[in-house]
Structure formats: C-alpha cells, structure tokens
UniProtKB/TrEMBL annotation:
One of its GO terms (molecular function) is hydrolase activity. Its EC number is 3.1.3.-. The keyword Hydrolase applies. The lineage of its organism: Bacteria, Bacillati, Actinomycetota, Actinomycetes, Mycobacteriales. It comes from Nocardia testacea. Pfam families: Hydrolase (PF00702). This is HAD family hydrolase.
Length: 215
C-alpha cells in the first residue's frame, strides 16, 4: 500500500533551464557552453556541481550564491519554471487521498520560494533546511520521518540515478525515475535503474494511475 508520494525538485518539478542560464551569465560564459559542460559532467557520472569547477577551478558555490543575492540576481523560482504536468499531477494525487511532499537538494531560500507558489502539497523541505543533502542516507531518513507510512509505503520521485533512485531504494522507499532533464534521459534505461526503480515514467501525469489505488 502506498500512503505518501515525495518529489525531488530540480528537473522533476522545475525546469532548471532558467537557473542554469543565470549561472552561465554570472560566470560570463555562453549558455550553450555551460550546457555542454553540464552534459559532459553528467555523462561522466559526476555531480553537476563539478560543472562549475570545470569552468572556474576553485569555484566556491556557496560564496557565489551569496554574491548573486547581493547583486540582486539571486535564485528565483516562478510559476513559469514548473513543468506543465506538475500542478495537475499533484492535485490528482491529493484527490486520491495520498499525502504529497517535496524534498530536494535545494537551498533554504528555494524552500521559501516553492512555498510561495502554493502548490497542492502537504509539506515542502530542502536539504538547505535539513542541513543534509542527497545521496546521504540521513536525507532519506528525514524523508521517512516527515512522510506518513512505513518506508515501503513512501514513493520518492526524482530524475537522478545516484541521488534519487539508488539511495531511496537503499532506504527502503519505492523510487520512481522520471525521464526528463539531462540525468533522467541519460539513466532511464540504465540497468541499475531497472533494478532499483519501481517505475520509470515520462510524465508526472502517469503517477496518479500508478499509485492512486494504494497498491
């Protein structure tokens, strides 16, 4: 029986194109160059934060985030950043009687911005608030603590094999990989994903039909 569905944020609920573009502009590199390096880092199975190290060795992400905020070009999340299937899918899951949460590797500010969108969810949390990030097992322990149900009654939806699917399964959750964003497409047919993911989906619109009956 499924009681709760918890969502990753970037490339699961949000299209990260605008934020990646903002980082490219901040670094002073063409947006297509940033995207190409991001793709190469992704294909090599490395963390996307390493994109910054390739472009600017020694790059301090936390410090540069602070400087962007001070310059008035800091992190923003708007309705237009949501993928079109997000609101209908979240609402359908709620209507089916499921508890719906959001928990991803984002800043504490991102949590505030997400809450301002008034999404049809029960709780929103981020790694910046929890002070622990995926794929650390403690992140998924926090998911288990805040979502109703035993671990195998909680679905975790994300786009990343190593940050979402594998550690969620290791924690006893039921992982779902969504095939979008660079990581989702790269790993949708990966044998590790085939082993660990409950389902691989192309749209969040598929979820209510898969989990809505509580199976």
């Amino acid at each position: 029986m499924i009681r709760s569905v918890v969502f990753d944020v970037g490339e699961t609920l949000l299209d990260d194109s605008r934020e990646f573009g903002a980082w490219a502009d901040w670094l002073g590199v063409p947006r297509h160059t940033f995207s190409a390096i991001l793709g190469a880092v992704t294909a090599a199975g490395r963390n996307n934060a390493e994109t910054f190290q390739v472009l600017r060795p020694g790059f301090d992400l936390a410090e540069q985030r602070r400087r962007r905020e001070e310059a008035g070009v800091g992190e923003q999340i708007e309705e237009s950043d949501l993928y079109p299937d997000v609101r209908p899918a979240l609402a359908a899951l709620k209507q089916a009687g499921l508890w719906v949460g959001v928990a991803g590797n984002q800043t504490a500010k991102a949590a505030v911005l997400l809450r301002s969108l008034d999404l049809p969810v029960d709780v929103i949390a981020t790694s910046g608030e929890w002070e622990v990030a995926k794929p650390d097992p403690a992140f998924f322990e926090a998911v288990i603590d805040f979502a109703p149900g035993k671990p195998d009654e909680i679905v975790y939806v994300g786009d990343h094999r190593d940050n979402d699917v594998v550690p969620a399964r290791a924690a006893g959750l039921r992982p779902v990989l969504i095939r979008r964003g660079p990581w989702g497409y790269l790993w949708a047919d990966d044998p590790v994903v085939a082993r660990d993911a409950e389902w691989v989906i192309d749209s969040l619109a598929e979820l209510p039909g898969l989990v809505g009956d509580g199976r």
